[in-house]
Q: What sequence folds into this?
């Protein structure tokens, strides 16, 4: 077995163990314990607290199963996302961060939910349930501690920085004006993930609305925010003209414009969303690299005057980069 193959095996084993197996084990144990408490809980139970005490109520079983389902779904996602390490067999910074986030999320959720049920054992009326804010903080703190430990157990992360190719400059005569524009939408896989998130937000909003009228306002506003965020980041228009390099969402926002005088160079690169940026959308890839990542494949990478790099995955990236290179050359004449 080569050194790279051995490193890949170690990385996958640790990533799956810390990002999926351990979180799932925490959730399963917690669910088994809290299920045994069902006969001791009031009906309905308190599911939301405010400064004045419990103000939202609902059935116990969904509250018991919620952290288990969320943890398992997120763990599967992390396992799949971290299964493709870098060519040297290590995780990228984004992949490593996602793995330890799974540890933090599982601990925070399961400690918080379990504590919320534990304080209600033996009560005849859930209105008497004490505040659980301290336990939520303990869960978040314990999750953070476990995430830090997991970070150091995982192999060192690295930034994948594969060399791109210089575009073929489009021929321009004198001060002839040229421009290029192309639209791009998120891949089907990314759209499926967004649809799942919106569905979770919708179900959460419905459940919270049934439990508490006051909390339903917050839940509905959260749902609207998630839906609008999804809508504004699923389709982009990418342009190169005398204004510079521009990428804008379907409603004109979010928007990123890099003027020609702020561009040092441009090249065409190949992008793997999970490996290079940890997902889709407007992403951070480390090493001064950000981008709008709609799918895998070719992309335009613009190096700005300050050294930071902005990447956009788009069809016909070579032509767009060639037009931008021609505009840069035209400006320096």
A:
């Amino acid at each position: 077995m080569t050194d790279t193959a051995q490193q890949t095996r170690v990385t996958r084993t640790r990533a799956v163990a810390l990002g999926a197996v351990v979180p799932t084990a925490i959730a399963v144990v917690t669910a088994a314990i809290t299920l045994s408490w069902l006969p001791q809980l009031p009906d309905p139970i308190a599911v939301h607290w405010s400064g004045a005490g419990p103000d939202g109520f609902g059935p116990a079983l969904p509250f018991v199963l919620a952290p288990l389902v969320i943890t398992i779904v997120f763990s599967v996602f992390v396992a799949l996302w971290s299964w493709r390490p870098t060519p040297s067999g290590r995780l990228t910074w984004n992949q490593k961060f996602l793995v330890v986030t799974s540890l933090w999320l599982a601990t925070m959720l399961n400690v918080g939910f379990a504590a919320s049920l534990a304080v209600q054992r033996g009560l005849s009326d859930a209105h008497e349930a004490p505040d659980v804010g301290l336990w939520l903080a303990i869960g978040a703190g314990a999750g953070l501690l476990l995430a830090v430990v997991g970070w150091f157990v995982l192999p060192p992360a690295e930034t994948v920085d594969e060399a791109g190719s210089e575009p073929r400059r489009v021929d321009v005569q004198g001060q002839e004006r040229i421009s290029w524009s192309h639209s791009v939408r998120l891949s089907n896989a990314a759209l499926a993930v967004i649809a799942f998130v919106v569905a979770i937000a919708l179900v959460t909003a419905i459940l919270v609305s049934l439990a508490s009228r006051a909390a339903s306002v917050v839940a509905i506003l959260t749902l609207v925010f998630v839906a609008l965020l999804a809508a504004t980041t699923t389709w982009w228009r990418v342009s190169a003209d005398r204004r510079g390099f521009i990428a804008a969402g379907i409603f004109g926002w979010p928007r990123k414009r890099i003027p020609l005088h702020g561009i040092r160079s441009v090249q065409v690169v190949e992008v793997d969303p999970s490996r290079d940026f940890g997902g889709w959308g407007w992403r951070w890839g480390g090493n001064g690299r950000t981008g709008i990542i709609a799918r895998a494949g070719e992309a335009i990478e613009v190096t700005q005057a300050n050294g930071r790099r902005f990447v956009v995955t788009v069809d016909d990236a070579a032509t767009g980069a060639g037009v931008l290179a021609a505009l840069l050359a035209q400006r320096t004449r």
Remarks:
- Residues 3-36 form the longest helix (34 residues).
- The CA atoms of residues 20 and 143 lie 14 Å apart.
